[in-house]
Amino acid sequence: MDFAFVSGNPALDLAGTVGSRGDAPVDALNGPADLERWVAACDGLPDRVTADPALFASALALREAVYRLALDRVRGRPFDPGSLETVNGAAAEPVPAVRLGDAGVRVSGDLAAALSQIARSAIAVLADPHAQLKECGRTGCTRIYLDRSRGARRTWCGMAECGNRVKAAAYRARRRAGGPR
Length: 181
Ligand SMILES: [Zn+2]
Fold this sequence. Notes:
- The structure is a single chain.
- The chain has 181 residues and is mainly α.
- It is built from six helices and six strands.
- Strands 1-2 form a two-stranded antiparallel ribbon.
- α3 packs across α4 and α4 crosses α5.
- The mean pLDDT is 94.
- Zinc ion binds next to α6.
- Pfam families: ABATE (PF07336), zf-CGNR (PF11706).
């Protein structure tokens, strides 16, 4: 399964590895190897980390805490204290090392460092009063994303993921109804 990085923030992208949370959740991280692939695919994180079962469990706990806090933020309610503790605890760990070279930035560190980086990304976006956090407008998607568009008029987590599907469904509905295209 390919991972989607459409949320505008790595922590929200991690939370988005569970899709359709409402009725039929689909989890893209089914074991430590999936997590290793996700970290390698995510910009700004080390290319190669090793995940054991304990760290994998920590990553999933962090993911669910990030999702809960983002949802709290979207719904305009106080943050869940247990989720705050999880995110703050992960963020207290050392972060990956970065080195600039002609080929760009090289990020290195272990999985705990990667999780710390993710937790700090979550804190940065959740603490920003101007950050426009939204839940995807496609029924059932449940992905939370950061809307950076001008005027914050984005409706879907991603065009490829949801926008085109909604538009195609609307087009088919209009065709069936015999209405204008
Ligand atoms: Zn979506």
